[in-house]
Write a structure and sequence with these properties.
By secondary structure, the protein is an alpha/beta fold. 39% of the residues lie in helices and 15% in strands. It is built from 15 helices and twelve strands. Helix 14 links the parallel strand 11 and strand 12. The two termini are 20 Å apart.
Length: 393
C-alpha cells in the first residue's frame, strides 16, 4: 500500500500520485496532511490511516507486505502507536526529502522530492501492477467504509435530538462538495478524528486540519490567515465549544479587516474528546461537561452553565445564525456561505456522540493501581494493546 503524507501535497505531486495509483492499482491511504492528494472517490483511495483512520485503510495496512511512504513522517497517530502494520515481514520504502523520515521503520530510503520521486518510480515500475483480485479486494474494503460513512453522517438514523456531531460534519461535506474553492479548517478535540475518518476530500488545498499538537484555539486564527493568503477561497472554520473558548477574539480582526469567513461553532456543552477518552480508560468523563459545582456533592455534577456562545460571537461583531436540527443547520450554512460578512453558525450537538467506529489502537497509558473496577479493566486492555506494538528502528 501507499501512504500519502504532507510531502505529497507540499510538492504538488497530485497528478503524479493519482496516475501512479491508477496504473499500478496500489491502494492509497492518507494522513491528515496528505488528505486530498488523491480524491476520496479515486479507484485506489481507501481513506485515512491509523488511530483515527478507516477500517479499509487499517485492514490493508495490517496485511501489506510492502508499504511505500510518500512524504509522511509516520507519526504516532498514523501508525496507531506502531501497531497498524502487522505483518512480521513487512518492508518499507520511504520517499521523503528529509533523510530522517526516509529511513524510519528501517526502510529503503528514497531521498527526493515527492513529485520527482514518483515520476522516477513510475518509470521504473512501468511494467508492474497489482493483480485483479487485489484491486477487487481494495474496492470491496473502500466501498464498505463508504457505507459506514453514510450511516454515521446522514440524519434520520435514529439519533437525537440533538444531532450528532458527525451529522453536522456530513452536512458541511455535502454542502461544500463541489467545484467551488473552499478550505475547511479544524484543529483540536474530537472533530479532527471524525474528519480524518469521514471527510471526503477532493482538493488538497481544501482540507487544513492541525492535529500534531491538538492546538486548541487555532481554528479561527488560522481561518483568518488562510483568507488573507487566498482571498478567493471560501474559508469554513469548524470549531468546538472548548476550542472556541480558548481563542475566539480573532473574529474581531476578521470583522475589522472586512475578511469574510464562515465559522461553524459546534456546541455540545463540554469537552467531548477528552471525555470519551477518559471514559474509555475507565475514568467516567470526569470534569468534561459544562456543569456547575453541586453544593450537595462537592462535584461538578450540578446544572448546566448559563453560557451562550452564540451571543458571545455576536458581541465580537459577527453575524450569528442558530440551529438545533440538521435541517436548520443546512439552511443556516447555505445562508452563511452566501453572506458577505463573517458569519457564525451555532449548532447544538450531542456531547456523547456517536463517533465513527474505531479500527485501531492508540497508546494512552492507564493507571496501574486504582480502586475503580473500570480503570482496572482498562489497564488490562491497555496491556493487551501494548503486546501488538512493533518497535521498529
Amino acid at each position: 500500500m501507499l501512504v500519502a503524507g504532507g510531502g505529497a501535497v507540499y510538492s504538488e505531486a497530485w497528478a503524479e500520485l493519482r496516475a501512479f495509483a491508477q496504473r499500478t492499482g496500489i491502494p492509497v491511504a492518507d494522513t491528515h496532511a496528505g488528505k486530498g492528494a488523491v480524491p476520496w472517490d479515486h479507484p485506489a483511495a481507501v481513506g485515512a490511516l491509523g488511530a483515527t483512520g478507516t477500517a479499509a485503510a487499517n485492514a490493508l495496512a495490517a496485511e501489506a507486505d510492502v508499504v511505500l511512504g510518500v512524504g509522511t513522517r509516520y507519526s504516532d497517530f498514523t501508525t496507531a502507536s506502531r501497531t497498524v502494520f502487522a505483518r512480521p515481514d513487512v518492508a518499507f520504502v520511504n520517499l521523503n526529502v528529509a533523510r530522517l523520515d526516509a529511513v524510519k521503520h528501517a526502510a529503503e530510503p528514497l531521498v527526493a522530492d515527492a513529485r520527482a520521486g514518483l515520476e522516477a518510480l513510475d518509470a521504473e515500475l512501468a511494467d508492474w501492477q497489482v493483480d485483479d483480485d487485489y484491486r477487487a479486494h481494495v474496492r470491496e474494503l473502500a466501498d464498505g467504509w463508504r457505507r459506514t460513512t453514510d450511516a454515521v453522517c446522514r440524519p434520520g438514523r435514529g439519533h437525537g435530538p440533538p444531532p450528532a456531531q458527525t451529522e453536522i460534519l456530513g452536512a458541511v461535506n455535502d454542502l461544500t462538495d463541489g467545484p467551488d474553492d473552499i478550505t475547511i479548517i479544524n484543529a483540536a478535540g474530537s472533530m479532527p478524528g471524525d474528519l480524518q475518518a469521514l471527510w471526503r476530500a477532493r482538493d488538497p488545498k481544501a482540507y487544513h486540519v492541525e492535529y500534531a499538537y491538538s492546538t486548541m484555539g487555532y481554528e479561527i486564527a488560522a481561518g483568518l490567515g488562510v483568507k488573507m493568503a487566498a482571498p478567493d477561497r471560501e474559508v469554513v472554520v469548524l470549531v468546538g465549544d472548548g476550542s472556541y473558548l480558548m481563542l475566539s477574539q480573532e473574529i474581531v480582526t476578521a470583522v475589522a479587516e472586512g475578511l469574510k469567513i464562515v465559522v461553524v461553532l459546534v456546541d455540545n456543552g463540554g469537552f467531548a474528546s477528552i471525555g470519551a477518552l477518559s471514559e474509555s480508560l475507565g475514568s467516567q468523563r470526569f470534569g468534561t461537561r459544562y456543569a456547575g459545582r453541586n453544593p450537595d456533592t462537592g462535584e461538578l455534577d450540578g446544572g448546566p452553565l448559563p453560557v451562550d456562545l452564540a451571543a458571545n460571537a455576536a458581541s465580537l461583531g459577527a453575524d450569528v445564525l442558530r440551529a438545533t436540527t440538521v435541517a436548520e443547520f443546512r439552511d443556516a450554512f447555505v445562508r452563511a456561505k452566501e453572506a458577505e460578512r463573517t458569519t457564525v453558525v451555532h449548532v447544538v450537538t450531542d456531547l456523547t456522540g456517536p463517533n465513527p467506529p474505531s479500527s485501531a489502537w492508540w497508546d494512552v497509558p492507564v493507571s496501574e493501581v486504582s480502586e475503580l473496577d473500570s480503570t482496572r479493566r482498562a489497564y488490562e486492555e491497555y496491556r493487551d494493546g501494548k503486546r501488538a506494538q512493533r518497535p521498529y528502528l
